[in-house]
Design goal:
This protein is α+β, with helices and mostly antiparallel strands. It has 2 domains: 72 residues, 3-Layer(aba) Sandwich (Glutaredoxin); 135 residues, Glutathione S-transferase Yfyf (Class Pi), Chain A, domain 2 (Up-down Bundle), CATH 1.20.1050. The protein is built from 10 helices and 4 strands, in the order E-H-E-H-E-E-H-H-H-H-H-H-H-H. The chain has a 4-stranded mixed β-sheet with strand order 2-1-3-4, covered by helices on one side. Helix 1 links the parallel strand 1 and strand 2. Helix 1 runs parallel beside helix 3, helix 1 packs across helix 6 and helix 4 runs parallel beside helix 6. The longest helix has 26 residues. The N and C termini lie far apart (58 Å). The mean pLDDT is 96.
Length: 223
């Protein structure tokens, strides 16, 4: 099987699902281009290749792949070595926790999009409960999800931890972690492939996203 000659990842600057794809591509040392779109003004060509109107879309020699989990699996299969465990059961478990992360990102998004205290508190509590469930399954030995080795599942959780760290540092919103989970977060956020997986002005872009959606978090942080 010959490798693709051109990969183009279509993105919104704020999207964590794009970011997980960027991390995986860079961790594997794969050459690709990154095209950022305005989510409020999507061009017709994008709507033609994204059936759900969402990013990321990976153009593989012009052929579109959509949904980040599918993109990650394709990249991992085509460009060795694999970032999944070799054992089939362990691999399936990692894939399941990838899906769980998508749910956590959804809870985080709902928390950020709420405009009232009751909805904010409900979404925050749901996110905290999810983090506690996650905390119970990570390997007891640092630094990564499964211990010493970096896997595809780590690519997936890095965007969540980056946003949680930003929420704590900038807006005073702290989601309590165990020492082990904090070590995992710290290890991921220290990686160059994670640091460079967002635009340079990401905190500003993130702040503008909150403002444009009239997020309750801003009024809570200002109180």
């Amino acid at each position: 099987m010959s490798l693709p000659t051109k990969l183009e990842l279509v993105s919104f600057k704020i999207c964590p699902f794009v970011q997980r794809s960027v991390i995986a591509l860079r961790q594997k040392g794969i050459a690709f281009t990154l095209t950022h779109l305005n989510p409020q003004d999507k061009p017709a060509w994008f709507n033609a290749i994204s059936p759900l109107g969402k990013v990321p879309v990976l153009l593989v020699d012009g052929t579109p792949l959509f949904e980040s989990a599918v993109i990650l699996e394709y990249v991992d299969e085509v460009y060795p070595p694999s970032l999944h465990p070799a054992d089939p059961l362990a691999k399936a478990q990692h894939r399941a926790w990838v899906e769980f992360c998508s749910e956590l990102l959804g809870r985080q998004h709902r928390m950020l999009m709420t405009t009232d205290a009751a909805s904010f508190n409900e979404a925050r509590d749901a996110l905290q409960q999810g983090l506690q469930r996650l905390d119970a399954v990570i390997a007891p030995t640092a630094p990564y999800f499964a211990g010493a080795s970096f896997h595809l599942v780590d690519c997936v959780y890095a965007p969540l931890f980056m946003r949680l760290a930003l929420l704590k540092q900038t807006y005073g919103l702290e989601m309590p972690f165990s020492a082990r989970m904090q070590a995992w977060s710290d290890a991921l956020l220290a990686l160059d492939v994670v640091k460079t997986s967002v635009v340079e002005d990401f905190p500003t872009v993130f702040a503008n996203f909150l403002k444009s959606n009239n997020s309750y978090l801003l009024s809570k942080a200002a109180a």
